[in-house]
Specification:
The complex is a heterodimer. Chain A is built from six helices and eleven strands. By secondary structure, chain A is of the alpha/beta class. Chain A has a single domain, classed as Rossmann fold. Chain A has a six-stranded mixed β-sheet with strand order 7-8-9-3-10-11. The two termini of chain A are 28 Å apart. The relative contact order of chain A is 0.19. By secondary structure, chain B is an alpha+beta fold. Chain B folds into two domains: 3-43 and 281-402, no CATH class; 49-268, no CATH class. Chain B is built from 13 helices and ten strands. Chain B has helices spanning 3-10, 12-50, 75-80, 180-187, 192-208, 210-214, 218-222, 250-258, 268-279, 281-312, 314-322, 327-356, 368-395, and strands spanning 54-58, 85-100, 103-112, 124-127, 136-140, 150-153, 156-164, 174-179, 239-244, 263-267. The chains are: A alpha/beta, B alpha+beta. The complex binds adenosine-5'-triphosphate (ATP) and magnesium ion. Magnesium ion binds at residues 49-50, 173 of chain A.
């Protein structure tokens, strides 16, 4: 783990549409997340949380502003500074609310494919994938297809996949929305553990105020504006 | 990890069903090609196997297959005397439809010039060639007669002594071979009543004729069969086939015969062309067009199927992009599945065809060049039709994985 910022955004702005239909979904959003830091992003529906997360996830280019990941400038306004898909593969892990596993691959294959895409040999990818599933407590369901897994199990496999290539940042958009509070708490604690143990910067969008205790920093968004919030006490 | 394989394994039933569907479509395309070849093949089958160099037909006709041709029997003797001619045979050939054992029997009757031709060149699958100059026949199995069966044609009963395979006329009827005399007896058969009436009419004409007045004994002949009447020639034949002696100049032989004013001549090749470009031309072109259309339809159907397959995976594809899969991986997934379906469909088409085509009433001939051509077309269709899916897949945003 080295010091320095995993994520640095500067004045990120996103405008959808134009003219009458123009929506300023995000305005001047600035956030810094260190390696090993877990940040929560709160805010009412439509406030621009997903817009922000997908902007730093390099799948939704901002209208203006810049994104640095691991100290490297990757987005400068809408212009990418590198091959985004390759960059995502190497540096970013994603977890989303709904199941985002590939339906025709088993749990372990879903993790394995991420590694193989990144150049790991199938053999070693399978071994490492199994270790990750074990780490996340779903090793016994390794050969199950996503449809045969419970929501919590699917989410843990998704986390395992997000971790597959030892990313610098992990981005999660309401990862616990489909889970009961106990399972939700477990997944949140998992993010904290991964951040601390693997030195990744983690940003989690959540509506769940009960699990805020696991976060190091809290950001709040409202009407596209972001501010750093107070760290809530207790859960 | 091969994503295409994993996806196919996951929804195997669906893939299998799709492959069978494509296979049946391709089988029809394949069958159309086979029917096309069958028509061509049937048309030239007799010409090809009868083994002759020069056809002599009635002057200015395109006979004997494309239209009616009549030449006198003694043309055989005239042709034989031409230097360089090895053999000259009469060609007697006509199609009849008769009742036999309660069902309708359609066949083309071919006369063999006994005793030079006993049918040795016929593709026998059972039985033997002709051993006597009357009342024996060699029938193609498509006629539906069995070995040893007795069949009444005209006034005489013929015994099936040999069975051939694939001896078919250009219109698809099975061929039976009998001696020339028998063939003519079958062709010119008339009922007893017709014969009696004709004899009576002949006698009546004779009484009025100056010839009979001078030669009263002529009237006796009026009561005899027509072919024994001295004044009447034997029934004519359709054509005369000439085989040129080895080493002789075929062109010289042709030139001599072409000089005769009552006949026209055709080489083996021009007879073949007359058949292909004449008699069966429309049928052939019709099938050819249907085949082209079907290939187009197959292409469209396959494109739709492959496009739908891609659409079903669009979420997975967005997800793959999200986790950083390069375009080659996505391209590979779609292309491999397209090729898999194409190849499997083709294989199914081939084996299904092998089972089904032999039951068709006419021959369906799968020629290697056609099979290879179709395989090439299927490959091209597979690739081309997956382009639609690839185009869609490459436009999908990784954002869609989140929705
Ligand atoms: N593709 C788009 N085109 C136009 N407007 C969009 C698009 N995506 C989002 N928006 C708008 O941008 C604003 C922010 O949306 P966003 O999805 O970021 O909100 P959110 O905070 O994630 O909400 P939720 O909590 O409901 O997920 C909303 O007003 C939304 O309607
Ligand atoms: Mg959202």
């Amino acid at each position: 783990m080295h010091d320095g910022f995993a994520i640095e955004t500067h004045s990120l702005t996103k405008v959808y549409g134009s003219g009458n239909t123009e929506v300023i979904a995000m305005h001047d959003a600035t956030m810094t997340v260190r390696r090993g830091e877990v940040a929560a992003l709160l805010g009412p529906s439509g406030s621009g949380k997903s817009t922000f997360l997908t902007a730093i996830g390099l799948i939704n280019p901002p209208t203006s502003g810049s994104v640095k990941i691991d100290g490297q400038l990757v987005m400068d306004g809408p212009a990418s500074q590198t091959n985004l898909r390759t960059f995502r593969r190497k540096h970013i892990g994603f977890v989303f609310q709904k199941s985002n596993l590939i339906p025709f691959l088993s749990a372990i294959e879903n993790v394995q494919i991420a590694m193989e895409l990144n150049g790991t040999t199938p053999r070693s990818a399978r071994k490492q994938a199994m270790e990750l599933l074990d780490y996340l407590g779903v090793a016994d369901r390794a050969d199950g297809l996503p449809t045969a897994l419970s929501g919590g199990q699917q989410q843990r496999v998704a986390v395992a996949r997000a971790l597959a290539n030892k990313p610098s940042i992990i981005l999660a958009d309401e990862p616990t929305a489909a889970l009961d509070s106990h399972r939700g708490q477990q997944v949140m604690e998992l993010f904290a553990r991964v951040a601390h143990e693997q030195g990744a910067g983690v940003v989690v969008v959540t509506h769940d105020h009960r699990s805020l205790s696991v976060f190091d920093t809290i950001y709040e968004m409202e009407d596209g504006l972001m501010r750093k919030g107070e760290k809530a006490e207790g859960g | 990890m091969n994503l295409a394989y994993k996806d196919i394994r996951h929804s195997f039933g669906r893939f299998a069903l799709t492959a069978v569907g494509i296979g049946m479509l391709l089988m029809i395309v394949m069958g159309m090609g086979g029917i096309y070849r069958g028509i061509e093949g049937d048309a030239t089958l007799l010409i090809n196997s009868i083994g002759t160099d020069i056809w002599i037909v009635q002057r200015d006709t395109r006979g004997p297959f494309a239209e009616v041709s009549r030449v006198p029997t003694n043309l055989v003797d005239r042709a034989s005397t031409v230097p360089g001619v090895a053999t000259a045979r009469e060609f007697v050939y006509h199609t009849i439809q008769r009742e036999h054992a309660g069902k309708s029997l359609r066949m083309s009757v071919l006369g063999l010039s006994w005793p030079t031709d006993k049918g040795d060149w016929l593709p026998l699958v059972a039985g033997r060639t002709l051993r006597q100059n009357h009342y024996e026949m060699i029938a193609d199995k498509s006629v539906g007669l069995y070995l040893g069966e007795r069949c009444k044609l005209g006034k005489d009963t013929y015994t099936v002594v040999g069975i051939t395979a694939n001896m078919i006329s250009s219109s698809g009827d099975g061929i039976i071979a009998v001696t020339v005399d028998d063939a003519q007896a079958i062709q010119f058969d008339t009922t007893g009543e017709a014969v009696r009436l004709e004899r009576a009419a002949r006698a009546a004409r004779g009484v009025r004729s100056e010839l009979v007045a001078k030669q009263p004994s002529m009237l006796d002949f009026a009561d005899r069969p027509a072919n024994e009447l001295p004044a009447l020639a034997r029934p004519q034949v359709s054509a005369v086939m000439v085989r040129v002696a080895p080493g002789a100049d075929a062109q010289a032989v042709s030139d001599i015969i072409a000089g005769w004013g009552d006949v026209s001549i055709f080489s083996q090749q021009s007879q073949r062309d007359l058949l292909i470009k004449g008699t069966v031309d429309r049928a052939r072109r019709q099938i050819g067009l249907i085949r082209v259309l079907l290939t187009g339809v197959a292409a469209i159907v396959m494109a739709l199927i492959l496009y739908t397959l891609t659409l079903d995976k669009i979420h997975s594809i967005a997800l793959l992009k999200l986790i950083g899969a390069p375009n080659t991986v996505i391209l590979g997934l779609i292309l491999q599945q397209a090729l898999f379906l194409g190849v499997l469909g083709y294989v199914i088409a081939y084996f299904l065809g092998q089972k089904i085509f032999p039951n068709f009433p006419r021959r369906v001939i799968l020629v290697n060049t056609d099979l290879i051509q179709l395989a090439g077309i299927v490959l091209i269709i597979s690739v081309a039709s997956s382009l639609l899916g690839i185009w869609k897949a490459l436009r999908v945003s990784p954002n869609e994985a989140i929705g």
